[in-house]
Amino acid sequence: xxxxxxxxxLSLLLGLGLHFLLQVFAKQEPANLPHGSMGWPLxxxxxGFLKPxxxxxxxxxxxxxxxxxxxxFKSHLFGSPTVxxxxxxxxWFVLQNEEKFFRVSYPKAMHGILGKFSLLIVSGDVHKxxxxxxxxxxxxSKSKPNFANCVEKxxxxxxxxxxxxxxxxxxxxxxKFTLNLMLKHLLSIEPEEPLAVKILEDFxxxxxxxxxxxxxxxxxxxASAVKARARLSATVREIIKExxxxxxxxxxxxxxxxxxxxxxxxxxxxxxxVLDILLGGYETTATLMALIVYxxxxxxxxxxxxxxxxxxxxxxxxxxxxLSWEDYQxxxxxxxxxxxxxxxxxxxxxxxxxxLQDVKFKGYFIPSGWKVLxxxxxxxFDPSLHENPLEFNPWRWTDKxxxxxxxxxxxxxxxxxxxxxxxxxxxxxxxHLVLNYRWKTMxxxxxxxxxxxxxxxxxxxxxxxxxxxxxxxxxxxx
Length: 478
Prior knowledge:
478 residues, five-stranded mixed beta sheet, oxidoreductase activity, acting on paired donors, with incorporation or reduction of molecular oxygen, metal-binding, iron ion binding, signal
């Protein structure tokens, strides 16, 4: 992934140069802007902003700029003059004033990958309509025992598949887990079906497009990602066609059935919302699970507390009795672990917004038409908000005030609708993981922000069953 960085430089020099000259040099900046630097001619400061760094840190760019200019500063990023906010209160204000003072504004290169009806891109009434459809899936899944049962069965199956291994590539494994779970509940596709394997391969290609050269040249990762998205769309569209032909679309079916039964979306909108939920339920949940496992490997006290919580739940149940919603509600420390991993690991480092009018807040001035980047990472590591902010400490969440200082799932009308579902999924998986395995990470393996989280070695783990097997275990790197 890091090898793509020189290509990103070339892309930015070619694609953003003229835009920079027109917007920065041909137009007088207001005198009361935040302090900062517009960076190099042509590419601004985008390269420094995107330079890979540990995701459990602010990175040199933000540290140096905050030290020099303060927690809110001006820059030139992604082809536009930009106000960068590392201030928690301003971040909250921006997210809460969607469509009033600010609007979502992602780089056009992402539009080609996500599609024009993606929830990340659309705004206004279209966003509300599609988000409500997505939220209906979350609500329906959370209230149905079969979702919890499926999570648990898949978790147990994965634990069993590791019994003869002493090493696993956890990030790849957990991506298969989360995608298979989503495919089952959205489209009734079973993990063992060839179509599930094909979709996983396309999604892996699809995700590489987010951190690749954003110019469509055949054979490049970006072009491959656009094509992968087209294949995924065609796959879902074909499933829709078959459902309609067979006159399915019953309320008691999977998520696609429910959408088709309502008839409120076009086929293109249906394809987009299905892919969005697959992407969110697969990529972001898998990344969070990997971060949790990484942090727990370096936090023996937290592991011990988790074991106590999950042993108490297991001891209260009959042998083989499945977990329930009531069990999840008892997993208080587990949820604290999830939140703390979000704070420390930063699955989403920042989001893109644009000012719809001149905005003044806390003495900061943001001109109309300027991009605004609320940077969650910086607020998560702000020592004025969090004691020992770089320390992974789930116990800090026993103080209810902590939740007001962190935005792990975003905020405002774009607050992640699947947050509760993801927590249930992760909690049930952790239940079986901590009761069945111990693990260690490699010294040179850690999460990188690029800006999306990757692991240097795919989070390669040395694992050992709680009841250690006597026979020698073969390598099983996946």
